[in-house]
Fold each of these.
Amino acid sequence: MSHSVELDGIGMSFGSTRAVSDVSFTVQAGEFFSILGPSGCGKTTILRMIAGFLEPTEGRVLIGGRDMRGLGPNQRPTAMIFQSLALFPLMPVWENIAFGLEARGMGKAERRRRADDLLRLIALEGYGDRMPGELSGGQRQRVAIARALAVEPDVLLLDEPLSALDLKLRQHMRAELRSLQKRTGVTFIYITHDQSEALAMSDRVAVMSAGLLQQVATPRQLYDNPATPFVAGFVGETNAIKGRVSAVGDGMARVDTALGPLHGRAQGAVAIGQTATLYVRPEALVPGVGANTLRARVSRMDFEGAFALVHGQFSDGAALTAAVPSTRLADAPAPGTDASFFFAPEHAVVLADA
Amino acid sequence: MRDLYARFGGGLATIFLSLVLIWLAAMVLAPNLMMIDYALRPNLPPAQIGSEADTWSLDNFTYLANEAVHRAIFFKTIWASALVAALTLVVCYPIAFWMAQRATPGQLSIALMLVIIPFFINEVLRTLAWFIILAYRGPLNAVLQGIGLIDAPIRWQGDGGVLAGMVYAYILFMLLPIYNAIESLDRSQLEAARDLGSPTWRTHWRVVIPHAKAGIATGCVFTFMLAAGSYVAPALLGSPGSRWFTEIIYNWFFEGGDWNRGAAYALTLLVLCLAVVLVTLRLFRVNLTDVAK
């Protein structure tokens, strides 16, 4: 069984510091949901309010429709996976996994059996009698997950659990977490500051900045249709070109910039005369001349394998980044030259400046 | 040792090492060997020292074994010291936990000040303060009578007084090792235990106490040794019925004038204390180097 989690206008203040302001969203039952934001944006505070370690100063947390106010972390149908994992170093792996069952008064033989079942689920069969210190980082990670799953939570809360792993293992664990979530059907709420992690794993993502909710959307929508300038800049690489709106219509907008008039999709409320910014992704920029053409001086090119990143400067001093696929490397301009790039209007987004 | 030579060079390191060895030989080894020698010889008038009557025997030890009162006081001292250690642990563990995991930095410094400042005062004076508090016509009885809890004053001095005085005297030796141990516990482990549904007592039993084991064993060993060897608290706060083995040793030396028997008694106490300590450490599966830290 899994449950939905609803945040209804929650806010949190620590003394005079405002950590979270008026955040509302609903996580569907069985969903893999991520909260993404830079450190200090309030995402961990939100997770701790859902877990019950913090009581929100305003608003309500509802799990499965039930108001959680006044219930401690041991009374909520949630289990948390800590950033430090917080395995108990003096207990063997199986006792770690069965700790929550021990607290529920289950007999030792039954606990051991359940721990062995879970060890099988995380592909660590036979590791039950090892101590946590004898396991590798990825194995400890999986034990922490098994320990949380042992209490059969409706909602699993994960506080950047992959941040201590190296890149290769992190990518492997992403896939593993994702498949574990699909198999168990438990609602996952996953905290991260790593946008590629959030985009790769989640059904939906909430982006936070400075205690405020910026946008809740699928990874694809976040990337293609950022709702705020913060999301446009934080999720993925982008080129931001400032200007003033001179025409709006049919969902499109024209922005007059120092580089000439440029066209893109209007996102949200965009009106003529407003100052606005046009965002275009590096991979949307194609070397050559077309409808929306940008001229820039190329300063260097970083070859990354699948593509090359071309860095340059526009005439107004702003930075340009374009991604050229390796298969089209012949078209890439040489460093030190002036070059033109163009993009299709539907690949650019126009957002009014805040 | 290699570190020592590497850091200070041959000359200085040799001086350090020889100072330590001289200290051990002159201050630890020699007095103990002398005491063993004393304990094994009979108490003789000066004229007969060195004569053929002056031979080694276990007479002084068998005397203790056959003297029922002394024997009883000896074992009572051992188990009462264990009781002191246990009571001090019960008092100190919650305070240490609060200080290490719950207190704000401000509260922590106030708490540390409150427990450390009394130790600026000499142990005799601190015990004397308890003597005054526990006196028959003292403040404690006055307060208890004043709020109507008791009708007539209670004679606190005796076993209760000795216990109270000792627990108070050795709080610091129990508190600081446990505080140190709990302080290094990652707070998220407490949160994880709670999140998994563990009640508070189980979290302590399964997570905090195992983590703090070395600190608890250290505190208990310190407190036990200090209590078993303590003289001031039983002398000031005790009664004839609560005599401490150290008082008997004192009597042999300074009132009986029989240093040989006193030495035998002291040696017996030392050996049994060591045995208790080593057994405790074995039970806790802690080794002496952990305690030394």
Note: Chain A is about 25% helix and 35% strand.
Amino acid sequence: MTYLRPKFRHPELEKNKLGYTINYYEGALSTLCAGCGHDSISAAVVQACYEMNIEPHRVAKLSGIGCSSKTPTYFLSNSHGFNSVHGRMPSVATGANLANKELIYFGMSGDGDSASIGMGQFVHAVRRNLRMIYIVMNNGCYGLTKGQDSATADKGSISKAGSNNRFEAIDMAALALELGADFVAQSFSGDKTQLIPLIKAAINHKGFAFINVISPCVTFNNNVGSTKSYDYVRQHVDATATIDYVPPAAEIRTSYNEGSSKRVTMHDGSYIQLHKLENSWDPQSRQSAMNAIHEARNRNEILTGLLYLNSQTEDLHHTLNTVSQPLNTLNETDLCPSAEALNSINNSFR
Amino acid sequence: MTETPKINDFVIRFANVNGTGSASANFLFTKAIYRMGIPVSPKNIFPSNIQGLPTWYEVRVSEKGYLARRDGIDIVVCVNPQSMANDVKSVRSGGYFLYDNTKMLYQQFIREDIHYIGIPLTKLCNEAFTDARQQQLFKNIAYVGALSVLLSIEFNVFEDLLAEQFKGKEKLIPFNIKALNLGADYIKENYNYPLPLRLERRNLIGNKIMVDGNTACGIGAVYAGATVVSWYPITPSTSVIEAFEEYSSKLRKVKESGENKVAIVQAEDELAAIGMVIGANWNGARSFTATSGPGLSLMNEFLGLAYFAEIPAVLIDVQRTGPSTGMPTRTQQSDVLEAAYASHGDTKHILLFPSTPTECFDLTAESFDLAEQLQTPVILLTDLDLGMNDHICEPFNWDNSRKFKRGKVLHAEDLEKIERFGRYLDVDNDGITYRTYPGTHPTKGSYFTRGTSRDEYAVYTEDGAAYERNMRRLSKKWETAKNMVPAPHFYQKENKSKFGIIFFGTSRYACEEAIDIMNNQGVMLDAMRLLSFPFSQQVHDFINSHEQVFVVEQNRDAQLRSLMLIEMNIVPQKLVSILNFDGMPLTAEKVISEVDKVLKKELSQLN
């Protein structure tokens, strides 16, 4: 448990464009195990929101049940949070999003919450292209019930108790890609420099943005033989690229070598600059991204980075053709037909 | 076998094959009687199937305005060979059997005690129409034409109805008139008419409308301002959402842009449907779903969350025959206990019991106010009979000055005035606390919604005392609700009898008829119709002021009676159950015979 956090902040801590320092974006003290990968992800969310100049109260944080689902408490304390029921966060997020299209929705989930009990809801949130940032904190085990294998545990991975997982793993990133997600990324909780720009780009994405983050469980799945331990992941991670998220109209500070970098432009002119790109792979081609994931898997490597992006995406509100005003702001005048209209309805039943 | 004429009082049953276009012909028949100013009540008795199985449509005509189903079928119109053996048996002695005599009737279908009216429907239609689909379809219209002569239905009423039905498709009208005449002319040429059972124009309908309860619920939700709707298809609730969608597309579309002031999502299952409803309500939109028993079972977990986390939700449960898949196309009132205590732990939910389409409209609208004022799920318990059958009822009514009651919600300016916002702090001492919508204020009003225990400031806690305080406050809110939910309806100003009778929902029709008949026989019963749960003091007082109270319900286990015994301090022997659970709507005969049993026993004890 991380029970100590100094309240002291440097008086000249840098402020963002809204005039907020980074501590304004923090949440309550984490009660997760010391060294838990999930805390690094929370910290990356804090950093991304701070750098993106987001008003915390314009964010809604939603989760299901499990260690990962506790994390919304640990960031953005000025945001509303909703810790719902196990595996059902996507439906709650769908309803919330339909009620108010103007907020930013963070869905924080885990491998049990999304790949097992909540698989149905996850799949359908992807299909509907609900505009939200959906982060799976993937540690291959059930931490809160003391370390049982989850559906994302690799076949052959050894648990802390010494048992060998005999079932095939569900690859969440490949699944999202197959289901038609227009923003699919994979990262490692230990790689903040990669995770923060990914979260920023996800916030800016106009549809369902999925980030599968390998986040080792220090207590129950960090042993030798586990394929989701810190050591194993560090040895097998294969970053597609280093990543910069560049907001619209921002100046490019660094220069990139032609040929070793690729720019992926988003809907509003912002872009993601990828370096050290594998030549054979195109992040704007679903087919190419799928191949890259499969090839990495054959090499026993975990491919990280932005895997696929279609910036021309159209979210659920677009599909349902809802009015531009958030539905939760409509009142009697907007919504309630008149008594006269009811009379003509009555007449149709005579 | 000549009978004395009987005006405006019969039951007719149509025996059809489903998927053959009989529904619209049968509806035409019913609507014509309604247009003649005569009380009429149709019941669809249909299979859980799309095409090819037997389906029946039973219509009761009653000058006295009795709209319940009644036993004893006077006339059967049978165009389904599959069900003919049973259909012949179902006619009461002295009744009429109308059938297609293109093929000769089997000898075993001949009964000595009923009248047979054969019409060569197939032959007539095959000769009159060339298109195979029309030959099939117009057989139905032809028997309606035959009935118009046999029962004295005014022909111009059909002409008016067809003109309205085919507005914009006028070239279809002559075909229908031709088919009506095929049947009508055949009767005129071959039989004596009209039958002793027949119709005469009356003025008994007034400005009443004829509509099904599901449509009424859908329109009620439009008027109540529902904007987010999520659902999973299930009989018999599907048409609630279909009606909501239809009226939304007429009344909630921005003319210039075609944009919708509503979002309707067909969910992947009932769990997701109620999850979306909870998410939307949490975020300040009015949202509802509709389902039936199996869906309600699936929604239990989320209903517990909404109860404990105090999130409004409106759920319309159109009950069907359970348990499990049960009889999906038959009616019952068997979700009472399931709905009242849905989910694990100590949970209770507000229930509303509409009995007519008018009440479906009113109570749907009211359910949104109650859900938001009480910040808890409200379950509207209707049933298949009410939801899917047409009922004659008072027209819908709306006051243009009516405001939505959004409950205790704090906005940015309210939060400015508060030192510290406590989401679960009982400021007004009524158990109902204040909430905020996400995104309201930069630094005040945010809180964490959760299904885990928390203190008054929504901070997670495992402190037993804080948990208990919260649970007791929820009980206090429940007490507050007792005075907010719709009051029961009493049929007498003051008690006249030591016997009382309690009923709810569609049992109303049979019970009102039974009470009327018994009153005429000198048997007095005081009656109370329940409209809601929790039970108010009035319900308690009614039971306490009678020696014996009949509780009428449409399930095996006397669920309402159990609920009353759990919730109120009543001697169990006081409540006598009258139960109907064969899937068919309750009849007055059933109620009377059950009451009689008790009264006879009472009399014999006196002797």
Note: The mean pLDDT of chain B is 96.
Amino acid sequence: MSLSNLIKNWSSLRVKRPYQDQYKNADYKWGMVIDLDSCTGCNACTTACYAENNLPVVGKESFSKGQAMHWLRIERYWGEGTELAQFPDHGAQFLPMMCQQCESAPCEVVCPVGATHHTPDGLNSQVYNRCIGSRYCSANCPYKVRYFNWWQYPERAWPNPLEKQLNPDVTVRSKGVMEKCTFCVQRLTAAKNQARTDGRRVADGEVTTACAQACPTSAITFGNMADSQSQVAKIWARQQVELASDKQDKKDEGLRGYRIFEELRTYPSVLYLERVRNSDA
Amino acid sequence: MKFYINATLAFAMLLCTAVVLAEPFVSGGAIGSQTDDGYNALGPVVVQPIEFPHNTHAGTMGINCMYCHTYARRSAVSGIPRLDKCMGCHNLIESVKDKPRIKQLFAYWEKKEAIPWLKVHDLPDFVRFNHERHIQRFYFKDGRPVREVCGYCHGDVASMTTARRVKALSMGWCISCHQKDHQESATNLKTSNGPNDCWQCHK
């Protein structure tokens, strides 16, 4: 952003974000819905993410040190503090956790070099070339979904000829940079490009993330929330969850939609649908 | 001892300065000039298997760039034409069949081998550049001449034999154009910029 740009758009840049109807006139605002009732914890999404985004498999030793690079992980909960805890064999609950693409992201403000910032279509970007590896963003992320390259993984993870499986549309990150879920930005860019040539907006269902595509139970829904007729926008509206609000004022009872750590005012773009539990079981 | 180190350092610095200052004169600062390691001011010097005369095809004959680089208007990459594209015309052009470069071309055709062309405008792997967006905007929407549009990044290829890299193709160079106010068309005075978001180009 040049200085002239800054001066010209000063008033719009001084607005507190997110605000109501911020994306009303925008073309794109990518969002996601994860139905925990459908999630079986099968890890297909994680595997798809590894394949799509060139994630290195770090090995047992590094994994035990917490150096795994899974942008999308399945968290397990054993129902602590509830009656489900008595039945650990039956009570495991799964929660796919990836970058929540916060509208007011804690990671963005602390980056000393501006390697992570907000894109116009509501993504929280990570520019590997700019990253100096201070890891401040990771420390400030309440979801712990940022992953640091502790090693030069390319040689370790993809010895010849495995490098041929790499996705050419995604950078192979090198040692010393931070990385995280991008909502498969390479797919979004390709879809937006095609739509632009055709002179239209990306249609609902035209593009989806690798995790949503791989999910056998369709627990993950991905789409454009700026399009009020899209699947995600409809679910958000039905669950009465407002993107730019940190306290949801739901009019109806029994709605399952919630966002994780909403009270921290990160305004995540991922909506989770609570699991329906049968307490009599 | 102390003096000795200082003197050595000073001499080394002097030498460095001299080399840095003299460098433009030594290499002439010209684009075509080449150093020992096969690099010139703008990147590696590429020696193609056949010295393809762009000046004849695009210059004298006035063939549209996109006749051969056919994917430029509909894909991220412009594409290097396949051998059968060359043969489609050259099979029928009797007058130049005995020229050395055409003989080379036919030799590849007889051997059923692809010509191992080398990439001249090679961007780093972390950059997402899209030919289609630029061609659609400036050639099809604005109706600017194709030599001018391709020339923004590739220089005047119609005056070269094998293509050479004459533009910096660095990030600052891309941004310098993206920040400019481009008139939407010859008749429309409305201006617009290229995108300046990091993720448009960085992947």
Note: The domain at 23-273 of chain A is CATH 3.30.70.20 (Alpha-Beta Plaits).
Amino acid sequence: MTLLLSAWTIGLILSLLALGIYISYRVFKFADITADGSITFGAAVAAAMLTHGRHPLAASGAAFVAGALAGTCTGVLHTRFKINQLLSGILVMTALYSINLHVMGQSNLPLLSATTLATYAQDLGRWISGHDSATLMGWPVSARDLGSLLLAAAIVLVIAAILWLFFNTNLGSAMRASGDNEQMIRALGVSVGNMIVIGLAIANGLVAFAGALLAQYQGFADVQMGIGMIVWGLASVIIGRALIGSDSVGAALTGTILGSVLFRLIIALALRWGLNPNDLKLVTAIFVFAALVLPSAMQKVRRHAAAS
Amino acid sequence: MLQLRELQKTFFAGTPNEVRALRGVSLQIEEGSFVTVIGTNGSGKSTLLNAVAGSFFADGGAITIAGRDVTRWPEHRRAAMIGRVFQNPFSGTAPTMTVSENLALAARRGLARGLGSLLPVRLQNELRDRVATLNMQLETRMHNPIGTLSGGQRQALTLLMATWRRPELLLLDEHTAALDPKSADQIVRLTERIVSQHRLTTLMVTHSMQQAATLGDRIVMMNQGLILADYAGTLRRHIRAEDLVRRFDEIRRDEQLDASAAEMLRENYV
């Protein structure tokens, strides 16, 4: 039960990463590898502030701003300096590695003694259950795990609602249109370059915010924690698309969150059944490859079958 | 309204594929006039339109719209003054967004886009009412993704979008060329209605002599990046499609004559 609970919680926390990837990859068709660096950036900034005794909300907010700056850099490299999308992301991601080391001062920063959002989550769990352990559907769980899950769910819900509202504003809709048909929105007076920069800022802000939450949940920030995170996000976005299968904003946001949780649950079960943790990234990469290739391959097979 | 001075554009300059698409085009269009531009493939007529819209910067010359020099303005900035319909009916609309959303985006052409709602109830009603005037039953499909509509329907909506806020200048780039004859006819009639209703200054590129002869009050004929003929006033009123076709045949013959004359001169004297 603890395993399931933590899979749900991490799934929800990483759904913020997935929502960021949804913005860059699905709204703008921009494969933004900055995410690998900005999730660590968020964790590093939050961890550094927390160990200096700053308030967890301030630390998490600062993480969002830090990520947004990273996204802005990638956007500016691509739109103003005409550097290829992927290369812009790689440059910023690489630069962030050094910056993260500077921010943390060491390659791994533990948060054991600091007051974090996890501390609040524990208080919340205690307040609900009355003592340190609770029962969930007949299973004993710790108040901290229960509180973390509830807090993560609440945060994700609020952020998803804000995003939904945002994508239905004039600015948010212009962003969606920029990804859908550049020529059209330019003819309607919108600078597509500016839209990409703002979009990547929001996307990486979310990714960094996810990093801050993850660091507080697991109790440390590590300079390596971002490796392969974009593929995680892509997997969630793709599963979400398959689950909901609609392009409307509400459906896509819901699907992405569900996709992230479901993907984390699958991974937790696979690990439980004996998948070597070292193979995790390999399996994820193969999964995303299959998800990208299978739909068109299936179509080809079907057309072949129909033709013969 | 629109003033072009010695406009020049060369594509792939300095390569064997060099194309001199505009070789110094000057044109002045009065407020409220409806000009059709005709020419053969490669005559530079679409390039002319794209240069005005700002799809690229001209190599030389100047463009003035409504008294403002826009020569170095990027496309999205010029869009505040220009409404545009493309040849490809899919170019003018965002396919995964709904009919309402597309129109609402166009309702803010050239205006700042902030955090206000895209589709307040009052605008939704206005959108539905104006779509109903198209008489295409599209008012019942306001919440469908616009990509599910036919080319003709999308082109009609694009025309409505381009003129939602009255543009200083309406640019139509062979906007019926990719449609079936029935839809094309429908769009031509819609164009006529909207342009006359709002008294729009319009520049329309077409490959159809018939369209050029029936629409608008002035015809500009282009060939090899230059304006060859300009029919306005009484001259324009007496022109028929056959006259335009004959003029084009003459041009073609002249060109062939030039080529064979040059060949003969070379053989005999070089």
Note: Residues 2-227 of chain A form one domain.
